[in-house]
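tool_log.txt
---
The assistant was asked to compare two proteins side by side. It first ran the structure predictor on the initial sequence, then on the second. Raw inputs and outputs are pasted verbatim so the downstream comparison step can read them without reformatting.
(1)
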Amino acid sequence: MALAAAVDGHNRKCNGFSYSENTKVCLLSPFGLNYDEDFDYYERNPDSVVVEVKVKDPKTGKVVLIKKEEPSTLDGV
């Protein structure tokens, strides 16, 4: 099964998108991402997230909840 490419009103394919979490707006763009060869580009790593994990205490054998930080993925999953 082939996936259909998104196109705009002028039948241009989608080569990029932008999403604002604050306004819940997604914008499609027919233009791809370009980088200037004379410019240094860096991405910031997303903040880590605190998760609760069940672990067995080796001394008592009881299951306890601990909180630990895990790195967040770029796709938020």
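(2)
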Amino acid sequence: MHVDLVKDIIAREFGKTKQKKLRNEKEEYESCFYKTDKGKYGIPVRAFMGSILDAAVSLNIAKTQIKRAIRIIGDVYELKYKKINKRADVTKRSGRTSSPNIAYRPEFVGWSCEMYIEFDENQITADQIINLVNQAGFTSGVGDWRPSAPKTPGNHGMFEVCK
């Protein structure tokens, strides 16, 4: 059934049926990427900070305490990865009908990045930060289909401290 549903949606979205405006699959896919200043694929620092703040709540730590104690330095971290899979996922549109839709997304396989954190030693220790980041990577994650995704939680975007 999934294959037929995908074919029907693609036919509707890309002009096999009557439609006012055709979608451009390549443009939609390319618009999903974040890029560094050097044009490399990356992930926004705000995604990691959001994940860390969510993890703080699960560890009974006030978000304001974390906001005062740590700073994640940078804008977009460059991703290192083994390969990229181009995904075509069936999603639901918002609104009254919630009709099925196709979302084109990249899936980074075997990804990693370097994170730079400054912290106030008077408020938090390096070991506490490592614990918090590991908790964030396990319970929240980053990107689409992460463990804390609001509608469809998954197991993508999970991370842990390596060094």
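---
observation on (2): Residues 32-139 form one domain. The longest helix spans residues 45-58.
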